[in-house]
Amino acid sequence: MSPADIDVVICTHLHLDHCGWLFDLAGRPVFPRAHLWFGAADWQHFVLDPRSRMLDHIRQGMLTTDGARVHLVSHDTTVVPGVDVTMTPGHTPGHLSVVVSSGVHRALLLGDAITCPVQLDEPTWHAMGDVDPQLAARVRERLFRELEAENTYGAGAHFPELRFGRVLTGELRRWIG
Ligand SMILES: [Zn+2]
């Protein structure tokens, strides 16, 4: 498989550590056939707003990508069967999480909506990069509740060892990975 075989790329948000590999230093696409999916509000915040810290070659690559291959998401939607995105703003304005489903099993790819499982016990701890920390905290709690469901596991992009886990309820509500 080569980068040209990739036909869908979903970015949870447009912080550089989550999208900086989409284009080379000349602004050419790394995945020339891929459709790119990310939050519409992140497009506005990071690509169109010149005050953002987006690197020039990434911004140029995004702005010169065929618009038919750029999918700006503003509400929960299905990307391909079994792969959905759900809006989880706060860390960034257009942050989204990816839901991969197979039968009754679901995996939530949380991006930076939850930075570390310790935030279950420390709900006021927020990531330094959170654009709207209060909204991010409310969204985290919503996601932790989703992760109470049986057969639902999640992992954030910066979780230790990228290990998936879920929330156990009972006398002590706790994270198990
Ligand atoms: Zn981030």
What brief labels describe this structure?
binds zinc ion, Metallo-beta-lactamase, Chain A, single chain, 177 residues, alpha/beta, three-stranded parallel β-sheet, five-stranded mixed β-sheet, 24% strand
What secondary-structure arrangement, pairings included, does this model have?
Blueprint: E1 8-10, H1 16-19, E2 35-39, H2 40-48, H3 56-64, E3 70-73, E4 77-80, E5 83-87, E6 96-102, E7 105-109, H4 133-146, E8 152-155, E9 166-168, E10 174-176
Parallel strand pairs: 1-2, 2-3, 7-8
Antiparallel strand pairs: 4-5, 5-6, 6-7, 9-10
The structure holds zinc ion.
Zinc ion binds next to loops.
Question: Gist?
Answer:
The chain is an alpha/beta fold and 177 residues long. Helix content is 20%, strand content 24%. Zinc ion is lined by residues 13, 15, 18, 91, 112, 129.
